Amino acid sequence: MAVGRYIFTPAAAYSSPEASGTLHVDGAKVELRVTEPLLSELLTLLDTAQEELSQRWNRQGRSDCHATRM
Asked: pTM of whole model > 0.70?
């Protein structure tokens, strides 16, 4: 998953519990130990939020119901 100049690759689901994902910033590898589960959870939550917002935006566009600015 790429976010800006950061590329996060989670550990494979079938890998050992000690395995961690990798994070690269501008081509340099960043060691993940304690932060990997937190980063993975955050990215999952952000992805879910993005999907939800996209669905809402699409529904709003189809209903011709747009918010007006005051």
From this structure: no
